[in-house]
Amino acid sequence: MSIQITPLTGSVGGLVEGVNLNEPVTRDVFEVLHRAFLEHGVLVYRGQFLQPGAHVEFARLWGNPAQNNPLDPSVPGFPGLIQVTKIPKETASTEAWHSDSIYTPVPPKISILSAVVVPHGGDTMWCNQYVSYERLSPAMQRMLEGLRARFTGLRLARMRGIDKIPSAVHPIVRTHPETHRKALYVGHPDTAQQIEGMTVAESRPLLDFLYEHSTTPDNVYRHMWQVGDVVMWDNRCTMHYAVHDYGEAERVLNRITLEGEVPV
């Protein structure tokens, strides 16, 4: 069966058919997937039931697994493969639009999730940050050029009870190292704290506008998880939001995150 890539929305996401990720991926197949990934930002593979070893091998085609937080639970026998389980809604750090670990000096570039146990609900949404930037007026694009913001892991610190809040400074508009397209690089108000050279009061209206501007419905793909799904996304040109509407129901996803580059 030949590989088929079908757009999932008009702005972000592609459905991949004709690939079995539990088998070795050839160079030719990888090149097709790589092109599709750069085009769509999010790739969805249904019905994979990806085994942990195959998950690790597939991830290594895309880069080096990032060092995990020692507090994250790993899949037994696979230290680089994190098991994402349910957490209380009131402490969830992912129920907000974000790019993974934007508050670190070198944020990861790609995340790959495999669905093991899926409740009713628990959808994940993604938005296209190329589109978010390109929809800005030329005047706004010029104003943002060269601006940098401080990002903090305040929500993560609250969730884990950490006293020292991680933070990093990155450009508000970053250039993707592979496509060379510009993407808006912002996040939730708890994360995008302040623009360099501006007061908090001056920064807040602009950061809030950019956050809301990025997540309009016509720029969003909402994924309804099924057991066996694999979804991968590009943290350099998307944001995502994990919907916590499943109460105390069990939810288990295996995740690998890959080392990225310093945003420029």
From TrEMBL:
Domain of life, per lineage: Bacteria
Cellular component aspect of the GO annotation: cytoplasm
A Pfam family hit: TauD
Any GO MF annotation of the entry: 2-oxoglutarate-dependent dioxygenase activity
UniProt keyword Transcription regulation, yes or no: no
Domain TauD/TfdA-like: 5-257
Keywords in alphabetical order: Dioxygenase, Iron, Metal-binding, Oxidoreductase
Family classification: Belongs to the TfdA dioxygenase family.
Protein name per the record: 2,4-dichlorophenoxyacetate dioxygenase
Species for this entry: Pandoraea terrae
